[in-house]
TrEMBL record:
Top-rank taxon: Bacteria
Protein name, per record: Cytosine deaminase
Domain Amidohydrolase span(s) in chain numbering: 44-404
Alphabetical keyword list: Hydrolase, Metal-binding
GO molecular function: cytosine deaminase activity; isoguanine deaminase activity; metal ion binding
Length: 430
């Protein structure tokens, strides 16, 4: 074999048949064996020593055309969504393809080091030059040997509101963009918003493409485009291929209305993506106290049987000055904002940045089982909850069967009389 990871702990639920640690054998970019005491040898062996091995993190919602542009041409002084959009408008004319590619590649380096090996990125198609589209199609090609980059044609200024946007979107799809995006709540009227959803879903159905719209990213409880998105998905037979991103208006909606909406989404097989870091910072901005959190109804949707994932959305761009590609930080924030502090809830937050996100992207061969792609992460944690709590170090990241990143464990050396010489921030009760 090419690589064996020995004494790995798998996440509960991921492999219930394995009560103890297992060895993972990898050959020609595939997992070929998952069993205790694997009787084989390999060119390279890694001893996990009981630590958690998980399939890679997946970010289902990102903006790679804007990432790492923090401070260009100035910083977002108010930190609001509207100043962010204005700032992006100021930056767009100055974008060059080389700089865009360079920033995106740098972000992908960070992602790999964080064990984040699949990203769905929206790309703005409202600039008729389609410069960002060209750049990200090139980035997708360059990172393909180690990272799955899926692109969404995103009409940031509204597919109906912005002249020529639908034609640009079609051109972007022809250039290799994978998914149809939209932004119904940004169209001029509610009616235009609903019309944009119909137009884009029909186009996607015709082309056999997936759909992922920025949908109802607002505090307005009457912003109900998700209803139209679910109805269109049902009408066009696109179950399992359509996603509503953000859905923040649902936070403020009437409970009775939501009790009808959730089964509608479930019936249509529409998935949901919350972006906890961004929702908590951008929503509720016009509130006095109490201030709404703005994140969509994550645990309620999960209970209703809807696939829910968490996205990073932004890292060091006009909307958000923080972040480093760490999906455990995203899960950590989501867990807090949604008050998912029960054991089951915490585990589901881990699923929201791994298996649920992978399902939304439609990734094939995702998982730790024979036959799966050999993409995995060795974390300095014993289980998913500890991984979230510590934002655990990625001791080793394996992509396509090769170790592509290594990092040291987080340890501190102490110099205290009568106390241990080192701490690792884990509970030791033996
Ligand atoms: Fe977004």
């Amino acid at each position: 074999m090419d690589l064996i990871i020995r004494r790995a702990t798998l996440a509960p639920g991921a492999a219930p048949q394995h009560k103890h640690t297992v060895d993972i054998g990898i050959e020609a970019g595939r997992i070929v064996a998952v069993e205790p005491n694997l009787a084989a040898s390999a060119a390279e062996e890694i001893d996990a020593a009981g630590s958690l091995v998980t399939p890679p993190f997946v970010d289902p919602h990102f903006h790679m055309d804007a990432t790492l542009s923090y401070g260009l041409p100035r910083v977002n002084a108010s930190g609001t969504l509207l100043e962010g959009i204005a700032l992006w408008g100021e930056l767009k004319p100055d974008l060059t393809q080389e700089a865009l590619i360079e920033r995106a590649l740098q972000y992908c380096d960070w992602a790999v080091a964080r064990g984040l090996l699949a990203i769905r990125s929206h790309v703005d198609v409202c600039d008729p030059r389609l410069l960002a589209v060209e750049a990200l199609v090139e980035v997708k090609r360059r990172v393909a040997p180690y990272l799955d980059l899926q692109l969404v044609a995103f009409p940031q200024d509204g597919v109906l509101r912005s002249a020529g946007a639908f034609e640009n979107l079609k051109r972007a799809i022809a250039m290799g963009v994978d998914v149809v995006g939209g932004i119904p709540h940004f169209e001029r009227t509610m009616a235009d918003g609903a019309q944009s959803v119909r137009l884009l879903c029909e186009f996607a159905a015709e082309q056999g493409l997936r759909v992922d719209m920025h949908c109802d990213e607002s505090d307005d409880p009457m912003s109900r485009h998700i209803e139209t998105l679910a109805a269109e998905t049902h009408r066009l037979g696109m179950q399992g291929r359509v996603t509503g991103s953000h859905l923040t208006s649902m936070h403020s909606m009437d409970n009775y209305y939501v009790s009808k909406l959730l089964p509608l989404m479930r019936e249509a097989g529409v998935a949901a993506i919350a972006n906890p870091l961004i929702n908590i910072t951008l929503q509720g901005r016009s509130d006095s106290y109490p201030k709404r959190r703005g994140m969509t109804r994550v645990p309620e949707m999960m209970t209703a049987g809807i696939t829910v994932a968490f996205g990073h959305d932004c890292v060091m761009d006009p909307w958000y000055s923080l972040g480093s590609g760490d999906m455990l930080e995203v899960a950590h924030m989501g867990l807090h904002v949604a008050q998912m502090t029960g054991v089951d809830g915490m585990r589901k937050c881990f699923d929201a940045v791994t298996v649920n996100a992978a399902r939304i992207l439609g990734l094939e061969g995702y998982g730790i089982a024979p036959g799966c792609a050999a993409n995995l992460v060795l974390l300095d944690a014993r289980d998913p909850v500890e991984a979230i709590r510590l934002r655990a170090a990625r001791l080793a990241v394996v992509s396509r069967g090769k170790v592509v990143s290594r990092a040291p464990a987080a340890r501190a050396a102490l110099s205290l009389e009568g106390r241990p010489s080192q701490v690792d921030f884990k509970l030791h009760r033996d």
